[in-house]
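Chapter review: from sequence to fold.
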Amino acid sequence: MDLSLLAEGAVEALVPLADRRGVAVEVGGAPAPVLGSSTLLPQLVTNLVLNAIVHNLPSGGAVALRTHSMPHAVALVVENTGELLPAHRVATLIEPFQRGAERTRSDDHAGAGLGLAIVDRITQAHGGTLVLTPRTDGGLIVTVWLPHPYPVEPSA
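The token string follows.
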């Protein structure tokens, strides 16, 4: 599977929600091949895009998705604008039922705070690592590192 194609698909599916919420979404990057579940990996990407849209500024927000391929790993980076998140709060976001900031439930998304917990479990199941980093001007950078299916050995 290619994370870049999964990212494009998730964005395409969630553009109506982003438009309703006034969030601009941008996707790009290099092909990022991975070996894994054809059910779980799309769910991982969709959860990240959905969270980035929903946990954003009330208007004028932005989401950027980028894929990268390194010799031993591939990465999906999802960055969004939003409320300021202190580092100690970010550390708890992968725990079930946690949220980065208070938000009211709306008709288009009534989440339970499980999105990043699910992403973390799927990442672990694929031998990867999930990294959450607060943005200095508000919002979050979420990076999913997964093993490259065809690692390149350094030349001697």
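Two observations follow directly from the output. Residues 23 and 61 are 5 Å apart (CA to CA). The chain has a mean pLDDT of 90.
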